[in-house]
Task: structure prediction
Amino acid sequence: MSDIVSLTLTEVRDKLAAGDIKAEEAVAACLDRIEATEPKIKAILHLQAAKALKTAKALDAAGPDPAKRLWGVPILVKDAICVADAPTTCASKILENFVPFYDAACIRKLKDAGAVILGKANLDEFAMGSSTENSAYQITANPWDLSRVPGGSSGGSAAAVAAGQCFAALGTDTGGSIRQPAAFCGTVGIKPTYGRVSRYGLVAYGSSLDQIGPLARTADDAAAMLTVISGHDAKDSTSAPREVPDFEKAIAGAADLSGLTIGLPDEYWGEGVDDEVREACRQAMDTAKALGATVVPVSLPHTPYAVATYYIVAMAEASSNLARFDGVRYGRRAPQAKTLEELYELSRSEGFGAEVRRRIIIGTYVLSAGYYDAYYRKAAQVRRLIRQDFLDAYSKCDVVCGPTSPFAAFPIGKMSGDPLQMYLSDIFTISLNLAGLPGLSMPVGLGKDSGLPIGMQLFGPAFDETAILRTAKVLGNALPKLPQPAGLA
Ligand code: GLN
Result:
């Protein structure tokens, strides 16, 4: 890797601001790295190299601007978020030719902060999946082992950050899609509190669960990105009118964890978790204790119901959100259709992949008269209980901690034929979305058996992203740094 792409986001940003690196050099370094690594990992669906270089040249001509926090920093965006004049496919055939004419709110903020958008990253179709194998276009490989998945659904974003293709990337997290790929690829990923980041311009999957957030190499990098993209937005009625702290400044002086109480939920540390995952997370907890933290047991007793609850709520919302892709107003239109019914049927069955169709069918079923009470209403009730579990836990601790995934990155193809198995693997990430709370995944080392990155999660109380970012920063500084991803050596 060149010197520039091995810098962290905050390092490169400071050099750009000081004039030590030109914006064009930073963009060119990323483009070189993309050229070298992309044939192996296939993280990007649309690269706008010429546009990024042009933007960088214009920035250089004007000179660094201290008011622009990410001046000249190249980033990638999950292809479920609208970037004006760039294709936004959601990795689906149904949106093959969709080019939005507007920027999502978070993209507007990034551009205003001087960031340079390199292109759009691969994902599971409509963000439905845990491996990025559900993309209609390509399968992204894990930079640590090219025969394995990068996680999902923000697998392109995570693989790109791990491979040094960009300094940070945006992902979205409906049930773990920022945190789980971050864990599989050895990066930091944060799902903000529901309402922290505007969803305006994000193609909706499960509207009451979706949040946009950054994937980056360090907690500081994630904090810098989150500060820029957060904030109330009148265009998103669920966006929270809350003050946004400067997260990077808020964690700047953090050196130890004294005074912090970390709760370990029994349900997250027991059966079903691979030994190497539990061991790496335990070691990180030992480090946390050495840094002054107090570790206490807590319980999230409704965890066993989380997968069923999540998949009912998420699929119900998806079936409703995806009804707009009817071949008339949005998306692909089947040319051979002769009647209106045929138009709907053909456009949708040709445009959507198998997993998306499965979810629309199940989602429609759980919302249908006669089944609504048994499924959707029940799930909505259990969701309250899951949220209450967290609130009870926070009466005993400041942050909650556990593994991000029960195992490290799995081989491509291993679970793609078994959707239920894939859904079950989300057990540790989905409760947080149901509760609307913030969570972060950070790398805690390489698994002793697999040699692959292991991710650990930190959950915080509502709107206290600072608590988890600070903990991740202090722990991250104390734990051994990960080497370069082995698959690209
Ligand atoms: N794996 C989960 C799902 O398929 C989460 C996806 C996400 O967070 N976008 O629904």
